[in-house]
Amino acid sequence: xxxxxxxxxxxxxxxxxxxxxxxxxxxxxxxxxxxxxxxxxxxxxxxxxxxxxxxxxxxxxxxxxxxxxxxxxxxxxxxxxxxxxxxxxxxxxxxxxxxxxxxxxxxxxxxxxxxxxxxxxxxxxxxxxxxxxxxxxxxxxxxxxxxxxxxxxxxxxxxxxxxxxxxxxxxxxxxxxxxxxxxxxxxxxxxxxxxxxxxxxxxxxxxxxxxxxxxxxxxxxxxxxxxxxxxxxxxxxxxxxxxxxxxxxxxxxxxxxxxxxxxxxxxxxxxxxxxxxxxxxxxxxxxxxxxxxxxxxxxxxxxxxxxxxxxxxxxxxxxxxxxxxxxxxxxxxxxxxxxxxxxxxxxxxxxxxxxxxxxxxxxxxxxxxxxxxxxxxxxxxxxxxxxxxxxxxxxxxxxxxxxxxxxxxxxxxxxxxxxxxxxxxxxxxxxxxxxxxxxxxxxxxxxxxxxxxxxxxxxxxxxxxxxxxxxxxxxxxxxxxxxxxxxxxxxxxxxxxxxxxxxxxxxxxxxxxxxxxxxxxxxxxxxxxxxxxxxxxxxxxxxxxxxxxxxxxxxxxxxxxxxxxxxxxxxxxxxxxxxxxxxxxxxxxxxxxxxxxxxxxxxxxxxxxxxxxxxxxxxxxxxxxxxxxxxxx
Length: 633
What we know:
By secondary structure, the chain is an all-beta fold. The chain is about 0% helix and about 45% strand. The chain is built from 1 helix and 47 strands. The strands form 12 sheets. Strands 16, 18, 19, 20, 22 and 23 form a 6-stranded mixed beta sheet that branches.
């Protein structure tokens, strides 16, 4: 029995879940100085421990102590308890040394057990007397308690201390560890326990990089988000991330750049982090052209020191092509349009297009640039309008990126100039009305259509001696040239029995002058009657290419170099032969040429050409010739 003077004090160990715990407090049951070891747990001599019922005892002294408690078949006995936070879902490794003995004659241990229980709200007792007053009834387990381990007494009896190791996965949150023996048969069973240890999951640092689609990657383009996935890490209560970098392709040391946050450690688990965004919030960007090293440290103080894992990823500049194609065509208003198209799409980049006029055909140099003739346009394709054959141009195509350091300004330029003909171009016309009163003649002509392209129609009438139109114009007095309608009438000073030719020329900003000449006359036809009879004779039309005298060449490039091709802009269907002549007597060498399209042929600058001025003579299929000068550097 207990002595009569005592006070039972009900203490409630913490029932609030604060957080995971990594080790038990004073698992070796070390005591401070007590006058009665039988009441050591009740007198507060065992740091961190209290009696749950009865008066459990400490055997030994100093660092060699061990806890001792008993139970009998009357469901009475002794037990101890301490604070320990069990977290639902976490696994714990428990180990302890144990010895069990029986007391009494012919006592069979039977199903007597040593029980370790996770619980919350267990009442514990503190004594104010030093007397050993015996045992108490074993308390009922509070709601939500879980058995951590139940060791059958019959397996460890009357010998040396033996070590038991087990694992326990909590399904509920509890804040206490309760240890006590139990017995259901006659006699008493005694329990000794020492070197109690409890450890939770080990902290690990495991992560990888992935893109916004969840694909694991270590190479990223400069404006892609880099995701750190640290969900495979375990046991951490806080984490630390910092970033280092070095140029891609180098092997030197990484240079420290930035850490996450301002104070270092971040509370919680790493989980999934968008590194690009969280570091952008700290005004740091992952620069392209660099390999970035990320260190992730995880910790759970004071249970475990921090552990670290290091991985690296690269931010690669996109492979950018500034090359482009362009197409020139004659628009409905008679000016040249240019369509441009980038050779490839640019990830995150911006296209920039503009056309400049240059003073030298084929030049793209700033020194020869007169100025911009169009506005700036963007996109992978663009259309420019309103250009003229009378000027030389180049296209500038730039690519850049204003949103990140992916792409600095890069550009490419291409020159173009010359005529841009269209399909079914024609200078032909019809005589719509020719009349004569026997003395004077009137003639009206109408041009064939060049629709949908606008052209300027030019008309004139000249003498055609012997019906020949291939002569220098000799205009008929009082019949001025007419522009720019599709019809014209000439009726001044035109005589019967005289040959004339009408010249119809067209031009616009797409092509040079082209013309057709048609010869006609009104002559007297003998008649048996008194009134003379007149007949109209019109010769077949003759459409020719005639070039205005300009200070620009039909040859490109001009000057040229040996070994490269020179392009000739003319009606390719009409070109019959090309010859080269020069001042060294290497004259009249026929030049082999090839047709590129309807308006273009090209030939190779070979050994028949000399450095300096070469004279080019071009013959059409009507045996007419045109002369050009070609300079070879």
